[in-house]
Design goal:
By secondary structure, the protein is α+β, with helices and mostly antiparallel strands. The protein contains 9 helices and 10 strands.
């Protein structure tokens, strides 16, 4: 990562992200990147290159493209970076929806294993935690959860657990029925999915807090954005989630 007061360049493998305070700044840095790439025998893929504007200004959201060296770069409202969906309004809900869809696909791919009667419940739980949860919770440390997202995650987990533990014969009617949520919680003694997310989120916050002021991510965590907030109720922040998590485990004041 290279940065100064006006822009940052985030480079990972063959992916390059340019962050700037204005479209003009991003364009200027991109032009320099194109020149440097050609000097090293590399070419910029114009079809795979997009740009996004994050602002509350409605006029600035008008769609237009950037032209650099006879190539036109399309403006988008969201894109994926390292498997994570990033939107121009910073809505983490889209990323959670995407992760749950991938979790459903993963669950379907191992459905024969989860429904195999000769396998023990413990093995099926390990498959769920190592195969399915690893897909769903990728990057969950940065998620900002509301009650709606927490409910979606619990519904997903309960659906998978019902497939693992199967149905139960009702003592009164003698008919087979689905397990209730309380019964699933008793059978699945490990941490539920929301608690796993909160634990990982607090671990990341503690890790960043120990980095010190020389690290950019530390300054982002403790920094205060410039300007005024819009009118109305303030949006829930990731920092607010961390404070609520600490209060939950009685570690915050």
């Amino acid at each position: 990562m290279k940065s100064n007061c006006t822009h940052q360049r985030l480079v990972y493998a063959d992916e390059v992200n340019i962050l700037g305070r204005s479209v003009h700044t991003v364009k200027k840095v991109a032009e320099a990147l194109v020149v440097d790439s050609r000097e090293n025998g590399l070419e910029l893929n114009a079809n795979m290159t997009k740009y996004m504007v994050t602002t509350r200004d409605q006029d600035a959201r008008r769609s237009h493209s950037i032209k650099i060296d006879n190539s036109s770069f399309e403006r988008v409202e969201q894109f994926r970076h390292l498997g994570t969906a990033i939107t121009n309004q910073n809505y983490i809900q889209e990323e959670i929806k995407s992760r749950l869809k991938l979790g459903n696909v993963c669950c379907h791919s191992v459905q024969n294993v989860l429904s195999y009667s000769l396998l023990s419940k413990n093995i099926k739980i390990k498959v769920y935690r190592t195969v399915i949860l690893s897909v769903v919770l990728c990057g969950c440390e940065t998620w900002l959860l509301t009650l709606r997202e927490e409910r979606r995650l619990r519904v997903f987990e309960n659906r998978v657990l019902r497939g693992i533990f199967g149905s139960k014969r009702d003592e009164l009617t003698g008919e087979w029925r689905k397990l209730h949520n309380e019964e699933l919680n008793d059978l699945y003694c490990l941490h539920i999915i929301v608690r796993v997310i909160k634990s990982r989120r607090m671990r990341l916050a503690g890790h960043v807090a120990r980095m010190g002021e020389r690290k950019g991510i530390y300054r982002v965590l403790l920094g205060k954005p410039e300007g005024k907030r819009p009118l109305g109720r303030p949006s829930l922040r990731w920092e607010d989630n961390i404070k609520l998590d600490l209060l939950e485990v009685k570690c915050g004041g």
